[in-house]
């Protein structure tokens, strides 16, 4: 089983749609959680941190459920510019620091 | 821009050669992490350096090694290159005062022929 698993993509949605991405992690000792966005042939860029209390930034909402070891990202009112790969990221600090990226979910937003 | 710079941007090597990749971290950051990203996959954690010491390592063989300098810049060295080492190598810097949020450089694209 992979340490971080994401929805297999791609997601193809029309502009204005709401889309949700899911991510699960296997190590209960994981400490911090993030969503990154990666455009084609570019570096990953931080989209938002994820907290148990939920985190909202404009059209983006992220949620962490520690009991279920589950992370989500919701994008409302999708824009063409949201087309990218979304990466779920988990940091583990026990036995030496380690960061695990999911394989990413590709999103295509169409006009 | 993140302020993290990597060099070179592209590199072509042959199997068996050695390569050194370089990374300058963002001002104020004391931690550098290195990743390997193959096409169509997420970045794979190679190792992290914190204040010049290796602070964590992923599942990469010993021929992948690194250094961090007093100014917190870093090098990734790969010996005995294999064809499967062809990938985008990403460096990320972070600060222990900022939740370990990582800021990435644009990467070095390595091709091994």
> What string gives the helices and strands of chain A in order?
EEEEEEEEEEE
Helix residue percentage of chain B: under 10%
Radius of gyration of CA atoms of chain A, rounded to a whole number:
14 Å
| Tally of strands of chain B | 11
- Compute the number of strand runs of chain A: 11
Shape of chain B: globular
Tell me the quaternary state.
heterodimer
Blueprint (SSEs and pairs):
The complex is a heterodimer of chains A (111) and B (113).
Chain A: E1 4-6, E2 11-14, E3 19-25, E4 30-38, E5 45-50, E6 55-57, E7 60-65, E8 70-75, E9 84-92, E10 98-101, E11 105-110
Parallel strand pairs in A: 2-11
Antiparallel strand pairs in A: 1-3, 3-8, 4-5, 4-9, 6-7, 7-8, 9-10, 9-11
Chain B: E1 5-7, E2 10-13, E3 19-24, E4 31-37, E5 44-50, E6 53-57, E7 64-68, E8 74-78, E9 87-94, E10 103-104, E11 108-112
Q: What does this entry look like structurally?
A:
The complex is a heterodimer of chains A (111) and B (113). Chain A has strands at 4-6, 11-14, 19-25, 30-38, 45-50, 55-57, 60-65, 70-75, 84-92, 98-101, 105-110. Chain A is mainly beta and 111 residues long. In chain A, the strands form 2 sheets. In chain A, strands 2, 4, 5, 9, 10 and 11 form a 6-stranded mixed beta sheet that branches. A 5-stranded antiparallel beta sheet of chain A has the order 1-3-8-7-6, with no helix packed on it. The mean pLDDT of chain A is 92. Chain B is built from no helices and 11 strands. The termini of chain B are far apart. Chain B has 113 residues and is mostly beta strands. The mean pLDDT of chain B is 93. In chain B, a hairpin with an 8-residue loop joins strand 9 (87-94) and strand 10. The A-B interface holds A 4, 32, 34, 42-46, 49, 87, 91, 96-104 and B 2, 33, 35, 41-45, 48, 50, 55-58, 90, 99-107.
